[in-house]
Amino acid sequence: MSRPLIISDCDEVLLYMVSPFKDWLAETQGVEFRMNGNDFSQALRWQDSGEVLEPDEIWKKLGLFFDTEMYRQDPIPGAIEGINTLAEDADVVILTNLVDKRQAMRAEQLAGHGLNARVFTNQGPKGPALQNILVEYQPSKAIFIDDLAQHHRSARETISGITTLHLCGEPMLAPLIDCAHSSGHADARIDSWVEALPWLRQQLQKENA
């Protein structure tokens, strides 16, 4: 008999990303990170000139961060414990928007924080990747957790019957980003694992009722 499946994002759901990225940029790259609104492309500016980095330069900084600085990423409070608790009653996999060559790095990173889970990498909208995962696992119920509204929209546009939780554990971003619950693409918006875990367990209990 198939089990429920939880598919969780990593950055800003399980591990902080923007906070250590901001510190690293300021300390070593001569770049200031400051979110004004929800436009990430306007958040990186050269400290000397105040000019916004070109998109290609932003991608280079992100790539270098993930290649060399992932050790800076700490767990969001309650996230690892929460996911491991859920894994007692469901299969858990990670769906992260990193290039494929970083798949093993992400799995090793999460294992170092006490989470041993299969990691899927993806680029772009997550709906098609979610669909492929569901085809493989054939779960009794699927729950998707992510911090970005566009991925919830992609999930809902691609898959019927998936439960979705919008969770952004980074206080620097949470008030600024679009809300998938408000737009009708998520079943709930909860930004702390203390509150998210009971909600997620309730969804699993619904399945087993």
Helices and strands, with pairings:
Elements: E1 5-8, H1 18-29, E2 31-33, E3 44-46, H2 55-68, H3 79-86, E4 91-96, H4 103-112, E5 118-121, H5 127-137, E6 142-146, H6 149-158, E7 163-166, E8 188-189, H7 193-208
Parallel strand pairs: 1-4, 1-6, 4-5, 6-7, 7-8
Antiparallel strand pairs: 2-3
Helix pairs in contact: 3-7, 5-6
CATH architecture of the largest domain: 3-Layer(aba) Sandwich
Instruction: Look at the structure and give the CATH class of the largest domain.
Output: Alpha Beta
Terminal CA distance reads: 15 Å
Q: Tally the helices: what do you get?
A: 7
3D shape: globular
The strand order across the widest sheet is 5-4-1-6-7-8
Radius of gyration: 17 Å
Question: What proportion of the residues is helical, as a percent range?
Answer: 25-40%
Number of domains: 2
> Low-confidence stretches at least 5 residues in length (pLDDT < 50)?
none
Fraction in beta strands = 5-15%
Instruction: Please outline the major beta sheet.
Output: 6 strands, parallel
Task: Give the CATH H-level superfamily of the largest domain.
Answer: HAD superfamily/HAD-like
Number of strands: 8
H/E order of the elements?
A: EHEEHHEHEHEHEEH
Structural class: alpha/beta
CATH topology of the largest domain: Rossmann fold
